[in-house]
């Protein structure tokens, strides 16, 4: 089933951290993101290629975790249509008024309880003098410090059950499953969903703790694989915990590095090379349990914590 | 104006060459493409990431040049709709029966006379044993020889006048102008058009000779910028003429290398990093004559032949 | 203690394989080396940047393993001096007459029994027409296929005891220890030795099986880290076993990929970036057991087989 | 003729700038170097891989240009020997007492008048807490900002006549010519000289203005070619003038980018890949005028200013 294009792309996420200052240091000094406003306990952060105001809201909180994912629709009409479908599916929460940088939005939840906010109107970013890019087809100057991430690339949720959530993204939000894993017993421990040529923007992975609403990781894309190797050096020098990588995923073939930001949330730095899903009738790729057991593309075994670490930690997740 | 997604992507091109054997050597040995069938004077060639049967038809001919560009629509309904619009615009040529690897199609021409073929049905590629990939989300094994191009990326036409052609792609085929150049006198010497998240797939550049129907270049995408630097070494060692680059375009920011294949057609090897147009309401970027005069992104001056070399050569273009 | 420069560089090795045809396929098709002569069961192979005739003699044999390492001295006088020192140290074996591509040489063994051949005269390579490079400061055209390794970079021996062997390289051959590991009990499980600005050319690692004369790996250098990532894809597609990597060593900071060639010998593909030992009074870096336990630079744990796999296999090593 | 190894490596240079603050910004913010002390109008700067205290003294002055090049010898004995030879050649200037970070030294000049300082004793760098590296085989933490240059790589002098200067480096300092250009009339417009495995550390290029003692450029090495592409983006964004590149030199095959620091001195960012001169009997490569006319490796024509811009500017050079 082809995606409908009603969702244009992942817009931003709100990430919670019990270590707001150190987390902010991570996103600005290490990743090279730019602060673009504050509101209460929240700092708005942007990558250099965000045409919108921000792609990350970093909020000081008692726990780590993900509060919300915002998706931009491809028109007002599509926003209305999606809101209606979500409501009909019993997943609607509220219509929200315009907020920082975006217009009126619609809040719903996936079956696992992750908040998903849909919006259409957005305020295009105009760089102030000191951040003005040399090339006018880029919203902001390329940062000469830190990793220099280009964009928020995708969100990987943990879910008690994967399939109902994948079905929600597919049936209600118009996405499609580009790749998935199927165990020998027919269960689906992970699904990768896409809306456009990007081969995935939302991922659901089975939460072995049975918890609901948790985050596996959010990912930021870099320009090149070399940026990820350089990022590993930067993380090493700055005491940022590297969980696994750099390596290449078999699924989606993304080149990756996983680190934990100081608040405990897992962050992926990723490079998809130039891979795109161009076929409008892409057929879901299903990986078997045996194929999955081979590890990553070049043989790296999946690290144990990859199956257990999520945010917020289970004890705190009440 | 947002693209309609009626066109899914550039499918393939038919390229003419007066040096069929040497051109074939270039596309297979140098670029690392794979032969996938022959028909008369034509050889069908594919990149390793083509989900369809081929992306290049290389045809022996008395001249160089581009015979046809095939675009895949995103549904049969869209194919019918586009065919109707082309006919109404007076640009229709013929309905064509199913041919190698694709279903029934519709042939039209842009105002400059370049043939554009629209099709929906396509035969997905199943690699034979010796070309089977290690990872099942890839159509064919990554080639260990030559440049190892991933996909046919875009086509850059020369046109006597740019604007009518851009309007055709926009109004008839549902594309949108992502970037363009505007001279001080208001004329438009070049337009870059896109249909999806790819920031361009068709480009029109003013033909200073006033000829019609000519080709500036076709481009193949690589996985990384390093592949393009390595490609430059491979071309150097094998006597393939390098016209200009490697360098980074200011417009579209593509990292590029331009070479001439032995038949005389200009071929671009390009890497877009991970840049995508995600905004459904992208606003056309217009570069002024003055901005353009600065040369490429890092200051390389545009080489003279870039404005004069097209295929077929003017004398032969009758 | 500074190296004496009496040894100019690692010249070539003779590698044994019970699978000569498949091993040859690995070194030519996968690594991109060039055959340059045969003699009996041996094939002479060269990287594109070898100024000498070859850097690898691949010899069909009943087992895998390393028969010999040849080191070029920096003058005839130095060859004579080293031969004398080796003889005085009771490690001399024989004076050998001129052989393929090299002049008269002196054969000795390190205390663990690895054969080391010293030579001065060498025949500079003149590429035949079809391998002539485009740039005259390079011995042979850059290969457009396979990994395209630049040079034989280093040899890593297994030894029952590391220190006597390191002392031999130091005291007899004029090398120096650039880095080493020291266990908490004062024992030395590994030493990296160098002769010039290259930070290592010979390495001794403790053989946990207590065997003598075995090989841990030989390494070939590539131009860039990207070549190693591409190599991983090539190995994946061609069924070459990847043991570990790509990753960055903490010791020596080399970017690496370990694979097994079809004969069973471990081969490292490595990129030292542009690191050199420039200080003539470099002080040996000693890593503690605790530092070593942290794994590789970016946290990859050292894989179990890295401590156990050597060639020839122990059972065969009689 | 083989180099003698009496010179171990290029140690540091003193660069003059009429724009000390902006030049300092360039070397620290753009290149990522670290300040390590001040003295009067001079700032001492180091790359992250300098084992010595610094590799650049940046001195405010009425003009741009190079005041001095310091070369480290490989022993005290070699320092004495070289000093004696320089004195006998009539090129001696003075014995200098120990100064910042280095022991007693000997000052001489090449025939064109460039000051060359020879020293042996040096103070090894111990990083303060905040700059301590994660890996103990590296002097200082890898900088997460700017280009992150690894080392001062080479100095390229302009000289009224090339040959007498090359002869001085060869006969007095024990270097060797690794590559050179010879015009059809037998004159030598450029020579590249080396002392060790690095294929060049000092270069002489003919000064078309006939001036003496001027600088063509100093060069800093990066880890990878990708760092140079990233550097081009950083320079573009920060208004640093890019003169030419990135591209690959035919001579020495170095991947390069040339920029002007704000004081007007030309700075090369370079990556030699992993190329080394290993042969102790390397034969000088001589490029003909015709070969040179082909431009750089991949065909880039040498830019006009490359032959005319030197520092200090001619008018100021009195």
UniProtKB/TrEMBL annotation, chains A, B, C, D:
UniProt-listed Pfam families: Glyoxalase (PF00903)
Organism: Amycolatopsis taiwanensis
MF terms (GO), sorted A to Z: catechol 2,3-dioxygenase activity; ferrous iron binding
Keywords from the UniProt entry: Repeat
Chain coiled-coil ranges: none
Protein name as catalogued: Catechol 2,3-dioxygenase
Record's keyword annotation contains Nucleus: no
Repeat in keyword set: yes
Boundaries of every VOC domain copy: 9-121, 151-272
